[in-house]
Amino acid sequence: MPYSPSVLNNALEAVGNTPLIRLDKIAEQEGLQCNLLGKVEYTSAGGSVKDRIAKRMVEEAEKDNKLIPGQSVVIEPTSGNTDKGYSVIITMPNKMSLEKEAALRALGAEVVRTPTEAAWDSPDSHIGVALKLQREIPGGIILDQYRNLNNPLAHELTTGPEIIDAVTSTPSTTAKPSSEKVDVLVAGAGTGGTITGISRAIKKTHNRDCIVVGVDPKGSILACPDTLNVEGAGSLYIVEGIGYDFIPDVLSRDTADVNSWIKTDDEESFEAVRKLMRLEGLLVGGSSGSALSGALRWLKSAEGKCIAEKKGANVVVLLADGIRNYMSKPWFLKMALEAEPSPLAKRISDILKESPSQVQTDSETLAEGIKTRTQPNVTNRPDAPDEVTRK
Q1: Theoretical Cys-Cys bridge with 341: which of 23, 180, 333, 345, CB 3.0 to 4.6 Å?
Q2: CATH number at residue 54
Q3: Could you tell me if 161 and 212 lie in one domain?
Q4: Domains: count for the chain
Q5: What is the per-residue pLDDT across 86-136, written as a single tens digit (0 to 9) for each?
Q6: From the candidates 25, 39, 50, 100, which is the catalytic residue?
């Protein structure tokens, strides 16, 4: 549904309709002539691109009488999702952030943690545990975002058209030229539903020549051809929400849908997050950094250089969620501690140097808070050393 200025009936009506924002400062810093645009999904009601598929999968299951209010229990293996008033059990790997778990519990969901290192087909994985719970709990149902066709369809029917409408309704001007079409789409791949669905929307109804670039972390096997996945094979990566050790059914690896792939690592992804925050004021999560770093690397490649140098070409980068899901993660806390002070820092310190000792003018209060940070030790959240800081 299009954005409505009137009062909404519920939070579900606030899912989607997210802004497409110019990333001009980053484009200028990188020497790009094209338009770099970010599709900012953290403004959706639940805070991420996953809102769209959760809403559609649940509503379609209701239409098919697969979900029965008061009886069904939704069980989903995921890195953090949403629900619609049903009893919900979420199974997620230990590496997923504490904020995601806390938010899900606040919404009334039960959360079960599983070993990050467990292979997808292991009974100990988040998928294996979800299947076991489904077998044992009356009314248990897995909507299965990895196979459910409503996953990519949600993006084909909403995210894609929103991007197309934003680009085509923004006229080209002398100051801000535009091809008035989506020339390139760059998105990370987890289940693959997002990139597959948006690609189909753009190529079917808008620009069949749009170049779609998938971003996959090193250690994952989603990129195509498979030779791209050799470097870092089997290694763990910290970034959440993208990459897998199996190929989900909803991900199209057909080159007609996803034309090219870029592999990224944690370090460049988190550096791109910092750029989006400091230069563009966008409080995005780690996978958004992966998407941006992948886009910049592709634009500097032999394949992408012609787009990078083309004034008016529109390159859309999917920014999947926000930083508030990751504020306890070591990579973000390290970024906060190492942030360069502004030119005002010394002046503030000089003004307050005679103030009581309780007044802090540097990062020591933050550092102490990080040092003493604790995590809840509950039965279904094993205290596992999955969250590590890379030097």
Answers
A1: 345
A2: 3.40.50.1100
A3: yes
A4: 3
A5: 899 999 999 888 898 998 999 889 999 999 889 888 999 999 999 999 999
A6: 50
- Nearest Cα to Cα of residue 178 among 168, 163, 188: 168
Token pair 């989607």 in the structure block, residue: 16
Confirm whether 346 is a catalytic residue.
Answer: no
Q: Note whether residue 246 is domain-resident.
A: yes
On whether both 306 and 350 belong to a single domain, the answer is: no
Span 239-298, pLDDT tens digits:
999 999 999 999 999 999 999 999 999 999 999 999 999 999 999 999 999 999 999 999
Question: Do 54 and 43 sit in the same domain of this protein?
Answer: no
Pair (138, 19) in one structural domain: no
Segment 195-212 shows an average pLDDT of 99
Domain end position, chosen among 142, 165, 198: 142
Residues 282, 255: contact at Cβ < 8 Å? no
Question: Residue 217 is inside which H or E element, if any?
Answer: strand 211-217
The torsion angles phi and psi of 220, rounded to 5 degrees, stand at -95, 165
Specify the pTM: 0.88
Q: Which domain holds residue 357?
A: 343-374
Residue type at position 198 = I
Rounded CA-CA distance 142/136 in Å is 13
Walk across the sheet containing 140-141 and list its strands. Answer: 110-114, 87-93, 73-77, 140-141
Query: What is the rounded distance in angstroms from the CA atom of residue 91 to the CA atom of residue 94?
Result: 10
Is residue 3 in a domain? no
Do the beta carbons of residue 26 and residue 283 sit within 8 Å?
no
Chain mean position to CA 281: 17
**Confidence check: pLDDT of 183 > 60:** yes
On the question of pLDDT at 391 being above 50, the answer is: no
